[in-house]
Amino acid sequence: MNKSVGTVALLGMLLSLPASAGQAQANPADWMNRMSQAVENLDYQGTFVYVHTLYSGEQSIDSMRITHINSASGTRERLYSITGPQREIIRTDKSVKCVFAEDRSVLVDNHVGRSLLPVLPLDDVLSSSAQYTLKMGVMGRVAGRRVQAVKIRPRDQYRYGYTLWLDVETGLPLKSVLHDADEKGSTLARLMFTDIRYGDAVDHSELTSEVPEERFELVSSPIPKTRAVSPDQPPRWSPAELPSGFRLTSHNHEDRDNGNGMFEHLVYSDGLATVSLYIETLADGQQAIPGLSRLGGMNAYVQQMDTLQITGIGEVPEITVKTLVNNVRQVAGEQSSGGD
Fold first, then answer.
1. Consecutive sets of 10 residues in the chain, 340 residues long: mean pLDDT of each?
2. Quick one: 212 and 257 in the same domain?
3. I need a labelling partner for 180 at 20 to 30 A (CA). Which of 141, 254, 261, 320 fits?
């Protein structure tokens, strides 16, 4: 893991799902379909308050502003703080650039650095074997607009639950709450827009940062795409046990040039929750720093196995990252220079 869990992790845990304009739907599946269909076309801009629980148990409150534009040339998004230490993230389809105050740490991970409003894979979440149940909630008002609550509840302890308050006109989540695995469990994070605008009302000039370019850090994939393994090549290392519903969705492996180690990245998902596993050979004399870190619902867990450092990161409960990390084994028939 490049750095400890920090503000970029905030993005990974902000589950929110936009949708096209239309009338309120009769059931949660209809709402999910509306949201998924419009996610690539909706332009929006607004200010929101984000409250999350730190590992110490204390709460942190951030006020932030976001501008998100979709066009023929791709997606552009700028997220920046308007209170507290200076933090800013600019994302396109090809890269994520970050700038933070010196006292803030950054977590670099492809899935944590995704758009604030990711696409929901409906086939997984709405199937008969899904690990979640969907329920309609009550109507209300957020940021001066009518909203409809939709509840997403986990069937076991290995994933979180969510409540989303969706703009009746557009489907955009104007408020979201991340719950512990138990429906009556503690609230881990809350997001609420205080103002929102759509379409032609979005000011495109807010996509341009006032921060000098040299202050940004470019966040990219830890493995170049040109060196990624083919989809049919199996992992060399993987968990011997997976929580129900999770499956391997992405895999990259890289042998180091000096022949003294390797790096493997595996991504597991149940269709909604996602966990990244990083398995890396430690340098001679290097020791991993084991333990758990948390920001809101984002957990990162590190363990050392022989000469390997194994790191799990995801917006999932502590038990999930620990289960995956502690069960990593070398795949039968595969040879690796990392843990022999």
1. 42 37 62 69 92 76 92 89 87 80 50 52 62 91 94 90 89 88 74 95 93 72 43 81 90 75 89 89 87 86 93 93 95 53
2. no
3. 141
